[in-house]
Amino acid sequence: MTRMSSFRMSAWGWLAFALVPLIPLPSVAEGAAAAPVLQGETCSVPGLMDQIRRGLASKSPAYQRYLRALLREAAVTLPGAELQAAFERETDPVMAEHLAAALVARSEREADREAMQVVAKRALEDRDPAVRSATVRAMRRTGALEKTGDLYERLMRDASPEVRMEAATNLVEDNKFVYAGQHGPATDTAVAAAAASSDPKATAKILGTLNTEKLGAEAAGTLQGLLRSDSAEVRRSAALALGGVPAEQMGTAREALVSLYRGERDTGVRKALVQGIAQLGFASAVPELQRLKGIDPGMAPEIDAWIRALETGLQEWELILREKQRLQQAP
Amino acid sequence: MRYMTKASLAALALLPLVATAHTVKSPFPGTVTATTNYSSGKFHGAVDISSGRCNYWGAETGVVGSVFWNVTVRTPGVYCNGTGSGTQNEAKHVWESGWTFRQWHFIKTADSYDRTCDRCQVGNEGGTGNASGPHAHLQQDKAGTNDTSWYSGYTTKGEAVDRTETVGVLD
User: Where is the signal peptide, in residue numbers (chain B) (predicted)?
Assistant: First the structure.
């Protein structure tokens, strides 16, 4: 009973604590000195920049997200030339990212379609890799990859590994959240950038989770070329990406994966190849997988798990993946 | 246990917004004329918004944030009161989950084309397709099932809305 009362009291206390910010200030200040006179303020670039600088000191990620959203929403009404000039002058990477995001927002809201080019130019040409990385991040989850030509191929050749990884993250997130894998040209751009990269980690990051269901024929050929990379990471990610290609490219993709499996020595790559073959064929891949079992006896348990998962007759790839994982975890 | 309860309550008060959620705003100023059911009781499963003005300038895509819009023009020309079921002009976005967000009935303009944008204009308010007057129909569906949860609690029939008004949240 005592414990219950104590709990009740503490719960009310916490509830009161949680609700304090919701109590209108005037009611708290009732009876105190007269409220200060409200002063009108215009929404200006310097004003918003001051607000962001103050917000950066708050150390609250939520408040910083709010300020970023505020700047993006205000961007369409801000004077474009002033915003662009402020961005070009700014050398602090954090502020540059906010201003770049505002320019990108103007472009995405179609208030100033060319604003994206200003950001892209700086992402390529700024001397400071931290500023280049920041401006690349500002283009994340937007239509930048459609509007900036070969920007991503060039970014993948940037001297800074940080910039290359930021660009790879953009391609992954844009394809996932902006296009949902449903826009072939966006997928093709990601594959072209992955192939242009000399950084195996960046290539593997792009291809490892790329939805390729709308991939074009030329890009499918590029992916098959990446199966011959010296890097096991790249071969592995290319094999996974080829598993999801559209119906018209499935035949050649399957042949490429089977052919590579015979000569491959890396176990991680072999596992990815088997997964790709399973994804391309579902239940019809079982005879092929049976044939591959003899090549490397060490892979037999992995292939058996795939065969059992495919023989369940599940029609959703995500469900097959889950079933295969379950079978491997089962005692 | 007590401390866990305190922590849970405190966490509830500080829950951040889900990063991938997309707010939906009204495509133009107007009034919500239908939501889950029509006045007749027949299922509708979407949000209808009308300003009452046919060919009203600038029907925007309502989703906040950059997404790819697939715009299909089935009926060119200015139509205000319907052109028959299945003939509506449509802007749609397919999410990774397979759910599709659709906006229907607008009149084709020079802005009616596929692109990636954040609240861009895809036509003018109109009545192409199955419509008895000019309006926008906002619908989220998958495999023939309409989602009604995205707007429930955010808007209701009769509400006056403008382009800044939240009519729902997609997540």
Answer: 1-21
Q: How many Cα atoms are found within 13 Å in the side-chain-facing hemisphere of A106? A: 26
Q: Kindly give, in sequence order, each residue whose CB lies less than 8 Å from that of residue A326, ignoring residues fewer than 6 positions away.
A: none
Number of CB pairs < 8 Å for A and B?
72
Chosen from B111, B118, B163 to mutate, greatest number of chain A CBs within 10 A: B118
B46 touches B62 (CB < 8 A): no
Q: B94 contacts in A (CB within 8 Å)?
A: 180, 182
Q: Which tokens go with A87?
A: 């961005």
Per-residue burial over A240-250, b if 16 or more Cβ lie within 10 Å, else e, is bbbbbbbeebb
For chain B, domains (ranges, CATH) are 18-170 (2.70.70.10)
Taking the C-alpha atoms of residue B63 and residue B25, their distance in angstroms, rounded to an integer, is 6
Tokens 């931290």, residue?
Answer: A130
Q: List chain A pLDDT tens, one digit each, 331 residues.
A: 334 444 444 555 554 445 444 444 444 444 456 777 877 666 788 888 888 888 888 888 898 888 888 888 999 999 999 999 999 999 999 999 999 999 999 999 999 999 999 999 999 999 999 999 999 999 999 999 999 999 999 999 999 999 999 999 999 999 999 999 999 999 999 999 999 999 999 999 999 999 999 999 999 999 999 999 999 999 999 999 999 999 999 999 999 999 999 999 999 999 999 999 999 999 999 999 999 999 999 999 999 999 999 999 999 999 999 999 999 887 6
Show residues of chain B in contact with A179, CB under 8 Å.
Answer: 68, 116
Residue B97 DSSP one-character state? T
- B positions 90-119 inside 8 Å of A (CB): 93-96, 115-119
Q: What are phi and psi of A17, to 5 degrees?
A: -60, -40
- Cβ–Cβ contact B10 with A under 8 A: yes
The number of helices, as runs of H, and strands, as runs of E, in chain B is 1, 13
Q: Does B140 touch chain A (CB under 8 A)?
A: no
